[in-house]
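pipeline: protein-struct stage 2 | run 1193 | Muramoyltetrapeptide carboxypeptidase
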Amino acid sequence: MNRKRFITNSILGLGALGLTSAVRVKSEVISAEPLTPPALKKGDTIAIFAPAGAVFSPQHIEKLKLVLQHQGYRVKLAPNLLQKVGYLAGSDQERIDTFHALIADKTIKALIAVRGGWGCARMIPKIDLGLIKQHPKVIMGYSDLTSLLNYITQQTGIITYHGPMAYSTWNDFTRKEFAAALVNPSSQRVNYLRDNERYSNQKGKAQGVLMGGNLSVLASMLGTFYQPNFTNKILFLEETNEEPYIIDRLLTQLRDAHVFKDISGLILGKFNNCVAEFPEESLPLTEVFDYHFQDLDIPVFGFANFGHVKDKYILDIGRNTEINTENFSFSFL
């Protein structure tokens, strides 16, 4: 751990208990500023694209199209949106060709995925990173998009966005977050936990470049040529519809790959519907988290609104970020 720098301060804590807790700040020295895609403005064209799973509920496409048009944007639908090759939105070549065409189109300022599912990792070996560098633009999604977004940001330095897709709920919260992150972006966006259900392993702060996404997808990236560099990163993780023993298995895989030794801090999402079918035969999810996180010497907190939830924060992958378990917040610096 001597390659990491800690600043530890003592503070008075826990009110009437009179206990003392430590604030641990682990910082990363950022070697270069990330490249932020141009902010969106009314009249811009936004493409809805399908890099992963096939669309079996096309009404979601029309819903997002109307939402974006109502906000003053033009909308372009990717030609493969309704293609189906089993569970994929067209063949690998169709999806990669469409993606490259949308990136190269100078009239398109943003790409929003229609859904996740599976398929992004199959595209990664053929992605033209030089083309993406020539035409930086907003690319947004989550779930299976975890591999695509983190790979693009790590290889190009361009910020990508973990945020809502066509299959998401575009409610007032999500629309306001869309405006705050992509239309009127502020380098000082501060996000607080919105619910009373909270988790932390210690009092502290940490800084680093933000990366992460869906736990299952991130674990599947380990050992590949596109495995992320976790060193001194702020990692965020979310999952949906998995039992606690599967969450335990996936976290164990990250632990044994030394991910938790490399990162500076960790933000947990909601882990929506990650409950045991037979609770009497399972550990509670909080005990799984305690097993993996209580003895870590980095700040860990949850449960933040991102990923498979209705109210979604948009997370800027590649942005320098600070987390604070004192007030359960994360800030883009």
